[in-house]
Design brief:
Blueprint lengths: L1 E7 L7 H15 L3 E8 L15 E3 H9 L8 H7 L2 H10 L9 H8 L7 H12 L6 E4 L8 H8 L3 E5 L3 H6 L4 H12 L5 E4 L2 H10 L7 E3 L6 H6 L11 E6 L8 H14 L5 E6 L7 H13 L6 E3 L5 H9 L3 E2 L11 H8 L6
Parallel strand pairs: 1-2, 1-4, 2-3, 4-5, 5-6, 6-7, 8-9, 8-11, 9-10
Length: 356
């Protein structure tokens, strides 16, 4: 089967949706399917072999400028090609691009307006690009915030369009008004342009059925998976310290992931286990805007005299993730919202690490 998969880059962040889209494409390719994985906005970052195309559609710089000013909607294509070059996007992404929904409401709505909105030139470029590619048997888009692509892709390619549902409600709920209402209204009106929705869990299917007004019989569930042998084998993984009982947190350092909740729980636990040698270890991507959140968690521990028992290891790559998990006695991820994916929980299980 020939599959065109459209995903969304998340600047320089390790993103669960990006990891899932890349891993799925890689596995489908390994099973003999012809998969084209094309990123939007920015290059896609993965901790496994990256199978995305080098092209970038709807380059983050271009769409921001076109959203802001009609002048940039009239630029010649050679200027667009410069603005859409991966090296330039990556340079700006590392310094100034954001994935904060509070800052991206207007741009989200512009994307959902599709070819009838201010980003019409980018939709025209998309159709030109897909017409130069082999015709796919099916098109899949990474989440419902890209549903504005469904109708133009279906009309241009005469192929069914699938849309993955994998936790975008967190972003949509984070939009400020009036953009949140505008975004949801645009998604509701375009549900009919998608042939099949694919949810990553039963919970996600039930929730998005109500949230996005998708008929239940048009949603299928395809659970997440991880490459378990990477975590089972774990050659070179560091051994656990037999003396210190180690509790671990692996995920984005952000309020919704609950590191501060874990710090508060750790303080309570230590009041009951003062004679036990124990540590709290955290690892994961942290945006500059969330440094105060990490500092607040550290203060919670310091006020209890436990700062010496905590280490933030920073961002870890694939090997570092495996080593980190194998250094733990138990893993805890007290997310403060209904976590739709929980990749690191699956990876902890594959590593033989129990979860609280």
């Amino acid at each position: 089967m020939r599959i065109l998969s459209v995903t969304a880059g998340a600047v320089s962040m390790y993103c669960g949706s990006c990891l899932r889209d890349n891993a799925l494409a890689a596995e489908l390719i390994a099973r003999g399917h012809d998969v084209t994985l094309i990123p939007l906005y920015t290059p896609l970052r993965s901790d496994e072999a990256n199978v995305t195309r080098p092209d970038i559609l709807f380059g983050g710089i271009s769409i921001y400028l076109q959203h802001r000013s009609a002048f940039f909607r009239r630029l010649p294509r050679f200027v667009d090609r410069l603005l859409d070059s991966p090296w330039l996007i990556k340079t700006f992404a590392d310094r100034s691009m954001s994935t904060d929904p509070k800052l991206l409401g207007g741009l989200t709505v512009s994307m959902l307006d599709g070819p009838d909105g201010v980003l019409r030139k980018e939709f025209d470029k998309l159709i030109e690009w897909v017409r130069d590619e082999p015709r796919p048997d099916v098109v899949t888009i990474t989440n419902s915030m890209l549903i504005g692509l469904a109708r133009p892709l279906a009309e241009a390619l005469k192929a069914p369009v699938c849309c993955t549902l994998q936790g975008e409600a967190l972003f949509l709920d984070g939009l400020i008004e009036p953009f949140k209402t505008q975004a949801l209204e645009r998604i509701w009106t375009q549900v009919a342009h998608v042939d099949r929705f694919v949810a990553i869990s039963d919970f996600e299917a039930r929730y998005m059925h109500q949230y996005l007004r998708i008929p239940g019989d048009r949603i299928s569930v395809v659970p997440l998976g991880v490459r378990v042998q990477d975590f089972e084998d774990a050659e070179g993984a560091e051994a656990q310290d037999a003396e210190d009982f180690t509790i671990g947190f692996l995920g984005r350092i952000a309020p919704e992931k609950g590191l501060r909740v874990l710090a508060e729980a750790y303080v309570q636990l230590r009041r009951k286990t003062a004679s036990t040698k124990m540590r709290l270890e955290a690892a994961g991507y942290m945006a500059a805007a969330h440094k105060p959140y990490l500092a607040a968690a550290q203060r919670t521990l310091a006020q209890a005299g436990l700062q010496h028992e905590f280490t933030y290891r920073g961002e870890v790559d694939r090997r570092g993730k495996v080593e980190f998990l194998h250094s733990l006695d138990v893993m805890s991820m007290p997310a403060t919202y209904d976590e739709p994916k929980g990749f690191t929980l699956l990876e902890a299980m594959a590593s033989g690490v129990p979860i609280v």
